[in-house]
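Subject: for your reference before the review

Hello V.,

The reviewers asked for a structural picture of the protein, and I figured it would be easier to keep everything in one thread rather than splitting it across files. Below is the amino acid sequence we used in the manuscript, unchanged from the supplementary table.
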Amino acid sequence: MEDPAVPRPVPHDTQPATLVTSAEIARLAGVTRAAVSNWRRRYEDFPPAAAGSASSPLFDWPAVQEWLRRRDRHQDVSLEVQTWQALRAAYGDATVAAVAAAARHLARLRSSRTATADVDQPMPAAARALLDRFAEESDPNTALRALTDRMADSARRTGSDQVTSPLIVQAVGHFAPEPRPGSTVFDPACGIGALLLAPGSGRDLVRIGQDSDADAVDIVLARSSLADYGDVRIAHGDSLRADRHPGLAADLVLCDPPVAAGDWGRDELLLDHRWEFGTPSRAEGELAWLQHAYAHTAPGGHVLMVMPASVAYRKAGRRIRAELVRRGIVRQVVALPGGVASGHVLPIHLWTLRRPEEGEPRPDSVRLIDLTENKPGGPLRPTDAQVVDVPLVDLLDDVVDLTPAVHLPTVRRDLAHEYEQARSDLADALAGLQSRLPELRRGDGADLWDGATVTVSDLIRAGLVELQDGEPRVVGGQVDPEYLDGFLRAGSNVRRSTSQSGSYRLDVKGARIPQRELPVQRRYGASFRALLDMEREAVRVAEAAQKLADIAREGLGSGNLEPGDG
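And here is what came back from the structure prediction:
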């Protein structure tokens, strides 16, 4: 009897023999260890142990793959997910090292660029074979981008600081000046290149970076090579202790510095020329990175630094902040919404500095912007009430506090009126949600995926669908757009594109949709469209409810609202 819960990795006849543990089988197949144990007990044809011991058996992975293929007719797993799971099986939680190994391998397929890290231990054969097939099915650049996205998603969910959050990248891009073609962008702690590769349109900039993690350096080198970013120069090493770019003067410096450590090198760098505004204390590593970035900025150039909120007011950094303000170097501080950084909700600030050109007059104020009340991923354009231009003289007190909220005027709110308006908005949203619920009835129980299906690749070859920016678009009138979109995000298409860790990325070309006549497609398409409308309305309901709760708590706590008699 076939077990419908067993996924189906695609076999590869030329894959070298590889021995794997039960745990690795679970990772590769996207199931739990208990499921593998059940398969061994329930199915006599499950491949026997090929080596190891009774307590730690090892299995021939190609044989297990073939068994998985036979056990399921349709719930196959995409090559992307298989490759990611194979890398996780080989490297465990060291996802940066796993993607770096993949990056080096893919770069060697397309470029003779030399990797920075020694490749003493080649990638395990099973992972390499899947990676080769994945790169052949798509292309090396697409494959690396997909694996990097999965690594970044995994890092965000585990609270890792190795990868800059996409929301921070978005904020930096919003507030940074647009670099002119041919200008130089520098990131002294570039990691995998999230900030460094974001500005501009590829080959129109010179991009220079450095990072202390050799694996991260190999990833950004491979990303830039495979995507043809043009002039990209990345060095390996600690930027503060061993600056690999002496004399560099960049037009735009972007930096999300490492989390402050107990020792950033102060003792050995006490007399370093970079401390133009004062030698940072051991607790002020962020201000060391800030001055390092400024030291590499050309006249007229800008620095955008991602900083913990505490740097704006800590006593140890007062003297350096005062000098930055006094000389008109710090131009803007933006308090970003909580939750934009990976793994925590602590507030993050974005500092903008500018190196003045010769003879340029000093500005007379610093712009402070407070977006902390905005939702993560929400609007970055501030309202008038969120912005204040503070004269330099008003900042140069005993504290030199650059926290935006401290300098914004307090606005008295009519919370009773706001509460009544929020109640009305929530009632309207609930009514809208109710009106958008689709009419569905009990079906006959026949699984549509067991019948005739067609892949998106087949539809593309038939000229019925085309890809635009990676998304399928219907051509002609033989496929209903809502039917296609709905089934792409339903059933086995979701399961085959989701890894064991929960990260999801749709495998468009390999996705299947049931074959149905156009009138039937339109009926299903209308239901899928109604579901999308309902989901959008549900977001509105959740936002209205959260706003109502926030106003109510603020009002009850401040005395502007009180409980009713009931």
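For the response letter, the relevant points are probably these. Confidence is low (pLDDT under 50) at residues 1-17, 112-120. The first strand starts at residue 19 and ends at 20.

Happy to draft the paragraph if you're swamped.

O.
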